[in-house]
Amino acid sequence: MGKTSTIIISDFEFSSASEGIWRNAKVPGTVHQDLLAYHLIPDPYIGENEKLVQWVERETWLYRAKFDCGSLNAFEYAELVLSGVDTHSEVYIDGKIVLTTQNMFRPSLLPITGGWRNGVHELLIVFHPASVHDSLAAMAYKTRLPDNRTFSRKPGYQYGWDWGPRLITCGITAPVKIHGWNELKLISARVITRKIESDRAFINAILEVSADQEMIMTLKCIESKAGISETIKVRLDVGHNEIRIPFEISNPKLWWPNGYGKPFLYHLVVESDLFDSAVEVPFGVRMVELVQEPDSSGVSFLFRINGKPVFAKGANYIPQDNFITRPDDLKYRQLLSRAAGQGFNMLRVWGGGIYERDLFYNLCDSLGLMVWQDFMFACYFPPATPQMAEEVRLEAIWQVKRLRPHPSVVLWCGNNEIDEAWHNWGYQKVFGYTKADSLKVWGDYKRLFDTILPDVLAQNDTTRPWWPSSPSIGWGRKESLRYGDMHYWGVWWGNEPFEIYRKKTGRFMSEYGFQSYPHPSTISYWAGERNKLSFSHPLMKAHQKHATGGETIETYLKRDFNLPADFDQYIYLSQVLQARGMGFAVESHRLAMPRCMGTLYWQLNDCWPVTSWSSVDYFGRPKAFFYQTSRLFAPTLITASVRLDTLWIEAVTEADLTRELELTVRVISLDGETIHTINEKVNLDRDHGCVLMKKALRELMTDTDKNDVFITAVLSSAGSGDIARCRTTLCRPADLVLRDPKVSYTLMTVGDHIHELKVMSEYPAFDVFIRFENDSEAVFSDNFFDLMPERPEIIRIESNKSISDLHEGLKVRSWYGSSDAKNKLPAR
After folding, report:
1. Number of structural domains in the chain
2. CA atoms lying within 13 Å on the CB side of residue 544
3. φ, ψ (nearest 5 deg) of residue 631
4. Which of these is catalytic: 50, 59, 223, 417?
5. In the Cβ-directed half-sphere of 507, how many Cα atoms lie within 13 Å?
6. pTM of the complete model beyond 0.90
7. Which of 264, 286, 308 is the last residue of a domain?
8. Binning pLDDT at 50, 70 and 90, where does residue 819 land?
């Protein structure tokens, strides 16, 4: 800030070193996107094209542009700012090398002096292949590491993951700027909360300013909602200055996570005679603690926000595209707004991706989505050579300073699964490590995660807790149930049944998951016609990055359902299966409250069209599980399950339900007739899972077969109506004698591109899935819902299609007709 000006260098061109033909480039962007724009490569997201574009990573790529700093001549200082340079590059001005870059996660700065300040000059950036750099660095390191990608400070997922393609790209992913200023440069501005009392909050406004001479600066700070209006004078020394201005806010409005209150944001305006314009500093009044205290179960692991324990509900988040500049702002807003609307209050930014763009954190601030922020390390041991250690230190300083103003960021985590990998994945044996090798590799780990990163935080942000590695203990060890955070992969990797989640719930569940196929239209995007597909088809395997993914889905599918012959039915049932399994998990975690205080499933989203653990696919199309999260993450959750011929009704709430509640349990035949009803008055204490009812099945039903009934449970109150509901069956879905539900509907337009779908049935229908064959972009307020004859569902739909088009393309699917026909009955 200060008296400043910025120019953005545009009109870039790109070329390969081997070809030498220059074409227009898009900056910000990546080389893959530029090649796609000229049809020089096929779309790697379609078919088996990924393997056809692997040559791109082996090329040397050049980007160039002209710049003229003449407009900055009024400023004494000018600086070239290169952000998001991915990754290994040499930077030239007028043919002279002036800079090298080795780290995508921090900017590179170059003073613009002398002759560069006048006339037109050429900026040239030469990108060298990351994979070649990694191989050379690995040879120099001498001790073999599990994967060479760890030698580059670039997004690890570009090298491929078990849900993503290998598309190692390069490019300039942020605007290239030249920044000019005179005697004063504002480096950063933020507000921290020092203390919160019942009727007051104590905050500090902190400005970092660089000055080239001693001077007096007048600052005026205004925040009308907080009653702040103060003018002060501060003395600046030559060099770096940190200005701390204390304020007190009476009766403050606090920043709360979604579901616990409003995420209120203040906006401090700072004016100065030395600034071109006022500086606006958004902030939330918020305190965060990571509470780890001994208790009867081990050691707690919970987030306390503003003195209040918070149960974290959400997911792990990965980059939304393999080419990080491609998602537009709307895609970010839609994904995060939908998550908040479903009841999410936390996202974990996973360490194999990127530090997200500013918009992501701004949205999380405004939506009340807490952010568990990994540093960008995942699964593979990083070297701590002097050069790498310094890169990591500078990267951490930059990212901590960038992200610390955001109240949504509640935790710094060192890495994903590297401690776990060292202790449980057997790499020492696989690679034949000597004692000296082990000391070197583990010593490098300790240097980065026990010294460098904690030191950066101690100097730059003490307002948030630090957690060295997630998980703290592997899921195969009993200690993981007693303390720390837990990644539980007994389901999926261990082939355990979904019901095991009841026993395998730790103090904070930061990873667990199950795959499903994406929306049919998403599969059609990469594979074309679906009628000849199966999970083993080459086009499906090209977009299934787990070695046994299709087989694992089918193994679990056979446990609950009969395999359908139709592939669309198979897709549908895989999503129902995922929702069923993840429902078991979330219910188990929440019912274990307060021993368990967080559930973050793997994973929210995808980076390309793929079969994966996501709940929302690459095109933003929710799967069944995502729709179910509105019930699973609601303040009050009720569950029904059958164990050893006993019905268990359990519940948990984070709401203050002071009045007596009514529990209604119904045994209903698949004809839709109520066979047995129980009404009981119950009380529900907040923040504790409890058993509301245990009944032997013989008390609920006598002459009825288990495969001909299901059970619903509803919590209600006189003043609020239905608060929570659930459904369970007494046998596996494949054994139910389902009736044709005879689903019908009416469709009407109620606003601009807004339609209302009323769905009815004559018989019960489970997990009813509505889609339009001719509009895959339609947005549904709900889907995969149950239908009862006496209770129609009203679904709000956003679509640009006409009513007649929607009628023509509407498809309805439920359990009936999606499994083997032997247990289906026509409607009576």
Report:
1. 5
2. 21
3. -80, -45
4. 417
5. 26
6. yes
7. 286
8. low
